Amino acid sequence: MSTPHIEADPGAFADTVLLPGDPLRAAYIAERFFSEAECVNTVRNMLGFTGRFRGQRISVMGTGMGIPSCLIYATELVQHYGVRRLLRIGTCGGVAEGLALGDLVLALGACTDSAVNRQRFAGLDFAATASWPLLARIAAEAAAQHCRLKVGNVFSSDLFYATDPDATVRMRRMGVLAVEMEAAGLYGLAAERGVEAAALLSVSDLLPDGASMSAEQRRAGLDRMVELALSAIIE
Ligand code: HPA
C-alpha cells in the first residue's frame, strides 16, 4: 500500500511521527535517538524512519518546507498509515521582544497568510490550534527540565522572503512570538482528521534582520528540542 509520495508497507509508521522539514534531519534524529531504526521511505529523498525510543515505537519523517509540502506528507501519513500524532520539529524566526537564539517556542496557535484552512472551512476563519494533550505534555516536560520555552501564537507564512516592512511590528503588537511555515496547515489538517498535532520550534534567527545561528548552534538546538519532544511524548 503506497501513496503517491510514500512507498512504505502498511504499519510502517508508528502512531506518533516527528516531522522535521529537512529529510537529513530526520535521518540524523533516527540515528542519534532511536534504537532499531529502519528507513521506511525514500521517495523524492523525503526520508522516513521508524524505530524505538525507551522501548516504544516512534517514527520521524521529513516534510519539506512550507504548508503544501508538509500537508502532502502529513495527510498521507494520517489517511493511509493511520498516524494519530503529528509533532513538527522545526526552526522559526523570533519576533517577540526578549526571545533569544536557541529559545524554544511551542505553537499554541498559528496565524497564517495561507488559504488552506479557509479552503477547509467554507471561507471562514478557522482558529488553528495545537492539540491540548500534546501541548500540555510538552509544556510540562519543559518545566520539569527547566527548559526555556515560550508557548503562544506563531505565524505560518507562505513567503520566507517576505517584503512587508510593517509585518514584524504588526505581529509583535498582536503577541505573535515567531514566524515559521507549516504549523497552521498542520493544525487544520489535524482538526479535520481528528488527530493530534503540535509544533515545537527552535529560534534560529531574530526578525526583522537580527542575528542568526551557525550550523553548529542549530544542531545543538535541534538535539535539545528532540530530547524534550521525545521525553514528552513517550510515557
Ligand atoms: N521565516 C519563516 N520561517 C522561518 C524563519 C523565518 O524567518 N526562520 C526559520 N524558519
Give structural notes.
The two termini are 30 Å apart. The chain is globular, with a radius of gyration of 17 Å. The longest helix is centred in the last third of the chain and has 19 residues, at 215-233. The chain has helices spanning 23-33, 67-81, 116-120, 132-144, 167-173, 183-193, 215-233; strands at 16-19, 35-41, 48-53, 56-61, 85-94, 104-112, 149-156, 178-180, 196-206. A five-stranded mixed barrel has the order 5-8-7-6-9. With 235 residues, the protein is an alpha/beta fold. Helix 2 runs parallel beside helix 6 (183-193) and helix 4 packs across helix 7 (215-233). The structure holds hypoxanthine. The site of hypoxanthine (HPA) has 11 residues, from strand 5, strand 8 and strand 9.
Low-pLDDT segments = none
- Average pLDDT confidence is 96
The hetero molecules present are: hypoxanthine
How does the major sheet shape up? 5 strands, mixed, barrel
The structure class reads: alpha/beta
Distance between the termini: 30 Å
**Strand proportion:** 25-35%
Radius of gyration: 17 Å
How many β-strand runs? 9
Q: Looking at the structure, what is the overall shape?
A: globular
Task: Summarize the helix and strand pattern as letters.
Answer: EHEEEHEEHHEHEHEH
